[in-house]
Amino acid sequence: MPEQESPDFTLTQRSVLALVPRIVWAFLWIVGFTWRFELIAEEGSEPVLPGAEVPAQTYCFWHQCVLPCALYFRWSHAVILISRSFDGELITRILRLFGFDAVRGSSSRAGREGLLGLKRVIERGGAAIFTADGPRGPIYQTKMGPIKLAELTGTPIGVFHLQPERAWMVKSWDRFLVPKPFTRIVVSWSKGIAVPQVFASEDLEPLRQQLNAALERARMRALQHFGQVQL
Predict the structure, then answer these.
(1) What is the number of domains present in the chain?
(2) In the predicted model, is pLDDT for residue 77 greater than 50?
(3) Cβ-count burial of 186 within 10 angstroms (0-12 exposed, 13-18 middle, 19+ buried)?
(4) Distance of CA 196 to CAs 13, 151, 153, 159, 185, Å?
(5) Is residue 231 a part of any domain in this protein?
(6) Domain for residue 3, yes or no?
């Protein structure tokens, strides 16, 4: 059941929420059929293939990859943690058109509520996805949420990055990527992160750094695949 939109949204924002999600959905369906996905995987990783069953665990990727991720994983019925901001509401409505669902919260607003919601998703056999550096960055710096969820559920973290060969880059904090028509998109997987049960919050920081390094390895391998420079 879609959540009721915030009464804080302006009339202009409500108009955008009513129109933009279906426009983006139609654009992605049309242009997305011209995209060609390629998969590369680090030794020891466990990549998820299109159409395959998605294990009940946590997955992480960088915020800039939302659009190609929405199309590549559209069959997964995964649940994504998204902030309660206007931008979060817009992304939620777009993703729901692709069959995803959302738990609302973030590292700064309703964080614990969001984590508990994703914990219930995994316990029911679903997959939970984090945009690891969202919702406001800084870019390429993962938050603690994925680590805490993996600790709560006793499940590993899958790590991947989607990099288009040709894309428009939005001038935003996350350098949001809009893949161009007929481009190749590499889906790069790093070895997953195992999170043991810990008893002190300071013990989680090395695991966060380990996750950050895995996400960056996936991104660097994807850039190297196309001979692109680091951004």
Answers:
(1) 1
(2) yes
(3) buried
(4) 43, 6, 10, 17, 33
(5) no
(6) no
pLDDT-derived band at 110 (thresholds 50, 70, 90) equals very low
Question: Minimal CA–CA distance to 141: which of 133, 131, 151, 149?
Answer: 133
Q: How would residue 206 be classed by pLDDT, with cut points 50, 70 and 90?
A: very high
Chain position carrying tokens 């889906």: 187
Q: What is the largest CA-CA distance in the chain?
A: 51
- Please tell me the distance from the alpha carbon of residue 225 to that of residue 39, in angstroms, as a whole number: 10
Q: Is residue 5 part of a domain?
A: no
SS3 146: helix
C-alpha pair distances (Å), 228 with each of 14, 189, 222, 224: 39, 18, 9, 6
Paired with 186 in beta bridges are 38, 163
Residue-number span of the structural domain to which 165 is assigned: 11-225
Residues 122 and 2: their CA atoms lie apart, in Å, by 20
